Amino acid sequence: MTNTPGLAPPAASEHAALLELWAQRHGVEAARRLEEAEDLADAVARAITPANTLDTYAKAWRVWARFCAVSGLPETGATRGSLVAFVAWMLREGQHTGMGYAPSSASTHLAGAVVGLRERGVPVSGDDQGAARAALEGLAVQLLKDGERRGRGKAVPGTIAGLRAIARSCPDTLAGERDRSLVLTSFPYAARAQVPAGLLAADIEEVEHGLLIDILTGKTKHSVRTAKVPPSADPELCGVRAYASYRARLAAEADPRWSAPDAPAYVGIDRWGNVTGGMSSDSVTRAIKRASQRANVPVAWTGHSLRIGLASQGRAAGKDAVAIADQGGWARHSRSMLGYMHRANGWTDNAAAGLT
Q1: Measured distance CA(59)–CA(323) in Å, rounded
Q2: How far is CA 87 from each of CA 147, 151, 277, rounded to the nearest angstrom?
């Protein structure tokens, strides 16, 4: 049986004991077939685990390995003490630069390290992991008391004025057309960076009323939601027109294979205008940041600015919270969505406004 990310496979001795038990109960041939079934189950689990989750686990294990090397501890010797020490080390000096991680990053690495340990047959008890998490929370509070605020902070929300500035500043090139479409098309359905990166041309359909975009959602239980992007009354801000213009230019200037239904909807483009392949989440974020900087937006946007922007701008325009949730793919009454709305509308809806 193989190791499956996110699951704790049996150690070699347990594996052998299982095979022996199966052979005693069902015979050698049946035991062999049961082992093959287990291998198939592991392969299926790997296939349905998102690539970014696997990357997170791999990075967390590298951080754990660095900690063990620095501390002189065995990588497969997890205890309550070593996990607590791991957390303290991450907050103190865990980055390659010698700086400490933000508590949110340390939490992710702790979870990933535990997954990696269990993959390697190392038992990690809930009590030991709980002690490490309690230490992380306590140390994070102490950092705040000491005046330290780590991490990038919340992304700046996209605004209508920012959209207009970006649309106007995109150059008359294939890359410029792509950037304009990427921003104007993604804003209306509150896209995360990984969404346009994962779209195929066939996932976006131009219909009478706008665009229908089929989006794969869910980290563990996948489903498809169809986002609707209506045309804008302002041609300069119309994501429907921007997408049609980008696709027409892509068909005219790039190899025909990039216009095929199974090709990426949004492609990477080098400085010479050549298509390099599909975009990743990071390249989408970089493209949005470059576009906002080119437009001289006061604070550079990130890949999440478009998502926050729909919630905050929609609320400011008086849109219903349920309609915003449905459009952006949030659960209705989502805490994160309501938080985005409050950031934009916390003054006009302020309970203290007008009391004095």
Answers
A1: 38
A2: 19, 16, 39
Phi/psi of residue 146, nearest 5 degrees: -85, 5
- Strand runs labelled E in 249-296: 267-269, 275-278
Tell me the pLDDT of the chain averaged across its residues: 84
DSSP code, position 237: G
What residues contact 185, with CB distance under 8 A and at least 6 apart? 196, 211, 229, 239, 240, 242, 243
Burial class (CB in 10 A: 0-12, 13-18, 19+), 160: middle
Neighbours of 172 (CB within 10 A): 7
Neighbours of 228 (CB within 10 A): 14
- Compute the CA torsion angle 344, 345, 347, 353 (nearest 10 deg): -170
Length of the chain: 356
- The rounded distance, in Å, linking the Cα atoms of 166 and 145 is 39
From residue 145, give the alpha-carbon distance in Å to each of 98, 103, 148, 303.
21, 14, 7, 31
Contact 285, 177 (CB under 8 A): no
Position 182 pLDDT exceeds 90: yes
Are the beta carbons of 118 and 62 closer than 8 angstroms? no
Quick one: DSSP state of residue 233?
Answer: S
pTM of the shown model: 0.63
